[in-house]
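Researcher: Let's try something more involved. This one mixes different molecule types, so please make sure each is placed in the same coordinate frame as the others.
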Amino acid sequence: MGMWIGRGRKARRCYGFDEIAIVPGVVTIDPDDVDIHWKLGNLRFEIPIIAAAMDGVMDVQFAVELSKFGGFGVLNLEGIQTRYVNPKSVIERIISASLEDFTNVLQQIYEEPIKEELIEKRIKEIKEAGGIAAVSSIPQRAERFAQIAQEAGADIFVIQSTVTTSRYISKDKPSLDFKALKKRISIPLIVGNCVTYESALELMACGIDGLLVGVGPGTACTTRGVLGIGIPQVTATADCAAARDFYYKQTTRYVPIITDGGMSVGGDVCKAFASGADAVMIGSSFAKAKESPGKGYHWGMATPHRNLPRGTRIYVGTTSTLEEILYGPAHLDDGSQNLVGALRTAMGMCGAKNIREMQLVELIIAPAIKTEGKIFQKAQRIGMGK
Amino acid sequence: MGMWIGRGRKARRCYGFDEIAIVPGVVTIDPDDVDIHWKLGNLRFEIPIIAAAMDGVMDVQFAVELSKFGGFGVLNLEGIQTRYVNPKSVIERIISASLEDFTNVLQQIYEEPIKEELIEKRIKEIKEAGGIAAVSSIPQRAERFAQIAQEAGADIFVIQSTVTTSRYISKDKPSLDFKALKKRISIPLIVGNCVTYESALELMACGIDGLLVGVGPGTACTTRGVLGIGIPQVTATADCAAARDFYYKQTTRYVPIITDGGMSVGGDVCKAFASGADAVMIGSSFAKAKESPGKGYHWGMATPHRNLPRGTRIYVGTTSTLEEILYGPAHLDDGSQNLVGALRTAMGMCGAKNIREMQLVELIIAPAIKTEGKIFQKAQRIGMGK
Amino acid sequence: MGMWIGRGRKARRCYGFDEIAIVPGVVTIDPDDVDIHWKLGNLRFEIPIIAAAMDGVMDVQFAVELSKFGGFGVLNLEGIQTRYVNPKSVIERIISASLEDFTNVLQQIYEEPIKEELIEKRIKEIKEAGGIAAVSSIPQRAERFAQIAQEAGADIFVIQSTVTTSRYISKDKPSLDFKALKKRISIPLIVGNCVTYESALELMACGIDGLLVGVGPGTACTTRGVLGIGIPQVTATADCAAARDFYYKQTTRYVPIITDGGMSVGGDVCKAFASGADAVMIGSSFAKAKESPGKGYHWGMATPHRNLPRGTRIYVGTTSTLEEILYGPAHLDDGSQNLVGALRTAMGMCGAKNIREMQLVELIIAPAIKTEGKIFQKAQRIGMGK
Amino acid sequence: MGMWIGRGRKARRCYGFDEIAIVPGVVTIDPDDVDIHWKLGNLRFEIPIIAAAMDGVMDVQFAVELSKFGGFGVLNLEGIQTRYVNPKSVIERIISASLEDFTNVLQQIYEEPIKEELIEKRIKEIKEAGGIAAVSSIPQRAERFAQIAQEAGADIFVIQSTVTTSRYISKDKPSLDFKALKKRISIPLIVGNCVTYESALELMACGIDGLLVGVGPGTACTTRGVLGIGIPQVTATADCAAARDFYYKQTTRYVPIITDGGMSVGGDVCKAFASGADAVMIGSSFAKAKESPGKGYHWGMATPHRNLPRGTRIYVGTTSTLEEILYGPAHLDDGSQNLVGALRTAMGMCGAKNIREMQLVELIIAPAIKTEGKIFQKAQRIGMGK
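Model: All components are placed in one shared frame. Result:
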């Protein structure tokens, strides 16, 4: 499976969304008839779309709204919501910072300690408003926070860092025992991020309920530039899906995988499922929603890292309501709206009745070469036309 | 034929016009001596070029003019011509809409119901002026409209949607039976769009007379971005041509395939034939004609889709007459004019006496890398030079 | 040697200068000690560089100057020099035409008939000033013009069209018999352009003395866009070099091949030899010379084509003397000056003592990806820096 | 290992930093626990980072500062420091030259003869301030200068030219005998640049202590454009690393290889080690340091070449202190700061305990396709946003 990149050194060619396309089927299905639900532990969701744990996208209100539409969002327990009683004014500072300052401003803002009472408060606010309360932390704080979250009534706990493995070696820092944690808490546990078959298998063997897939692909993420590490999402998703299917054969336990990051339009979302995903986690697309706290801005979770920031602030603008992003009607022709409609239509064109069948449709390698026509059209849109 | 894109997942590399080139032959032929006619059912056309069913390109007048030059155009029965008695003022509204509004404006304009008496009227107008009347509808309305069209004197009926297959599954919507329809109408039936060998074979087995090839390649089309679905035109054409040739061997019935979309210059048209096409369908190139109704603008057929628009409005300007586009003389050096001359010259350089021989010439893979010189030259043309 | 581009259809991957690089040798040689002479028939030239038959580059004066430096240039007998007694004022009109008009202006200017007495006059002017007189025509006029040229004292005759093959089929036009012509004239005959092994062999078998290699690669050429025809120069050169070596084995007659077009910097010239060339033909680089008639402008030979122009006008500016372009010293760091020095240095680094050895050095495939640094540097140069 | 690029001609596909990425490991390690030291002869360095012998980057002061942080820099004995008693004013002239003039200005400045007493003086200045004194010359002057340098107290001698081989052929110029030189001097000898397995083996067999790897990859380098010669750094590093490992097996002598050039961000540095490097040599990143003499400008060593300049002047700006570049904290999110932190973090994510293990981590081929999001983000940063 590898190509020579030097004497005695082989490397596998990996693929991202821009390099592949989906092949239509021999049978087409009415989009209204396809089934797109998915399950996480005992929870069932009508749409396989999750909002990323980004402070520009997710707050209590957004979590509640998204739950009403059949999905859910993850609130970052390491973020602004649990550091500040009044997060609005803090977000205001971030989005008004100049381009030169914003890394510094972010680093400073995230120095404020996390308050455990705010963890409890945010979860209860979501639950009282009838939403799904999904919350996340980094591995180092997962034991403590998972306990607090579960007691406060959280539905789902997410453990997330740039690269998470079941084995961690340190001379003086304690490492998280996923198996032990899994025994102590009863709510579904999602862990990530992961991009390889081997790590996915090991994490599944720890008893986790869902796996986040993706290192370095998001628009607000600079991991690949800073560290050189990353795997394009099509290959990462296909590899982790293979681990899921192998683990399922061995154990009959099905651990859904969630492709996280790198999807900017409906077509990318469709490709993630065609690559093997059970659900997708989205940041930048939701940042465009009128309901999102960042007012059209978003930034990665590793952006405020004290010593080695690996993210940036992106302005996408506020173009639509959450409902339009999920269910349309689309008022733009660029694939950023009606993601659910796009997924249903694509599944219909592929003859895929449900997500499991969509995971098996034919893919081709077809680089997205921008023709002059497309470039011209783009140019027109950004204001050079007419 | 596939490459690994992930564990247990293979994908075929597919190719578009920008990635290939034609190899000159060992013998050259005088361009005046090559034969470029083609046949559809019992109809014979002197040039293998069809105008796409786009409202910015095709109206009664354009259909008549193109017929005089040896080709034909398709009038969209789902478009403005059959919704409005006076289409000119409607087109005026579309091309004067702002960039932010035009998707909305289009969606609104196409809400107006189709009038069956206008279908009859348009067809008769074309026939009275001595043109070829080719008209199109989506599969859901094909049974009704084909009947009306044939009675009104249409020469060709086209059934067209983003992806069309002979099998369609729906709980509550009736599906079109191509075989039954084919028995009821006697005029040639073109069906599309299609991009795979299997679907092409199944559609041909239904008795259709011509096949449109292409999903997602046109400049005004955003299907690949919105749905992730699409196959580059060289591979799609070669695959469907293989189906045509296999079906011909089996049945001795020859079903011509028509490459539809993605060709912006004469070189692309030549490559379509070299990939296996019997004819080509063109939108954007004809939008540049002084005779075209859109005054230099065009937009895709799926652009006004109510819930999930998959197209955009493109401005190409009005650079030449229809005659110059087809037969020259070319006053521009960019390959947008004298398409027939370009095809004849290319066939001559390849030593191909007719379209069937042109389908067999040697192709190479040669990505169109823009050198600095070419970019500079482009820059000069768009206004940075002298 | 092919890859599948569709069912039943294979294509070979071909390569251009931007996609390859030269590997340094295990031995290095002092650049002053490498030998770069070549031979055409009985003529010996000290440098393997020829100026293209472009009206913006070549006139009597330029032919004389280039001869002094060890090379030669080709005067186009179909061009301005033989249509007008006073070509200077005509060139003035071309370079002062607006971007919209220049194709029309060119088409008009080249309508003026060729005068046979001017053919004689130009050749004699070159010879009287001590230069090498090499002149060219298209195949249709070669018989007549070759006769006139030889009688006027020309040293070399060149027959050139976009694609030239030894076999040409036409109902009513006579075809050129290369063998017969070769018997009638005694001066060396260069023929082109050609890009395939088979055609090269057939042309060599006609007795020609040199072969021009290249279809569609030059900066002023738009053949690939207009006709879809073209082969990248590395592969074209390697294929024709293989034909030359095979023909030499068979006949012990060595027919040098001349890579024509697509080389914009010294590195490209070096790669042409490393791909198998015996000499190179250059247009755009010489257009930068203060001695060239086009004052920094050049345009392709097919640009004024009456019906299907396949070229454009390029402005490169007047940056240096002919001596600096050939021998340095270079005052620019971009590889456009001191082409002979670059070739000598590259040969030294490869351990190649002469052109024959340079044709055998190792090549790698290494796409010229522009890094941000390089783009930045470029941006600085075109005026955004300091 | 090769692909056909023409008849009878094969070429190997080679890879650069932009085309690969690092795969995370199954085990992760605390970044504080990884070991990044390396050895050159008997010298041990805490960080595997060397400053390039560029006049815009290295002077006495910079050498001293970098030594304090655990690395070292190379002072160019052919540069300004040994030609001028007061280099500051000379650098001022270079950085204030206009874009049109600077190649000329550089050529003129480097005409000034090298003063041997200045060689002695600079080395003593570094040693007196407690720094590592590493100095470089071209092969032609290496015998004389190595003697002087060693006597003045230098720690390391570097012999560097574009392409250096152990065998050099010239009619009238003496060639350097590396073996003989190695016997005469006792301090470690680094030689380069080299990009092939065979040359690396031959140079190691001469007894050298370290090998510089890289031809044509740096931002200030235009060798590939001017000469067509160059090998992308991932393949060059892997090939020379294979030579090092083979030579080590044969002789048990370990000759470290130093990847030189082409690394613009932390991710590239990490990839160099993952490709097989023992240390990296960096220019452009250090040019951004407030401590560097060029005040944000740098230029290649071959830029002032009298006859064939192969480099240019780049402005990178002064963005940070040397400490921030090496150890952070990073105030930018683009990977240009905290190179040591980035290397440690990447090694931790790969489960690599030391450099030798990092040389063996898994790589993938994953072209750095710029998505619209990334381009947008870039555009924002350069001033189009907010």
